[in-house]
C-alpha cells in the first residue's frame, strides 16, 4: 500500500457509492492501469505476494475471466 506510484497501490473510498478502490496511478508499458473495486469500506487491506486480503469476507472475481485480456 502506498500512494499509487513506484509499484504501490493507493486505497481510496467513495462514500457515495460505498466502494473501496485499490489502484495504481502508473500505467504499464501498454498504457493499462490496475484497479480493484471492493464493495463497502475496507480500511485494512494487505497484499502478500499474489494474494489480496481484506478485513472481511473472501474476495471473488465477478464478471471477468482473470486470464482474458482487459477490454479496451
TrEMBL record:
It comes from Pseudomonas syringae. This is Uncharacterized protein. It comes from the Bacteria.
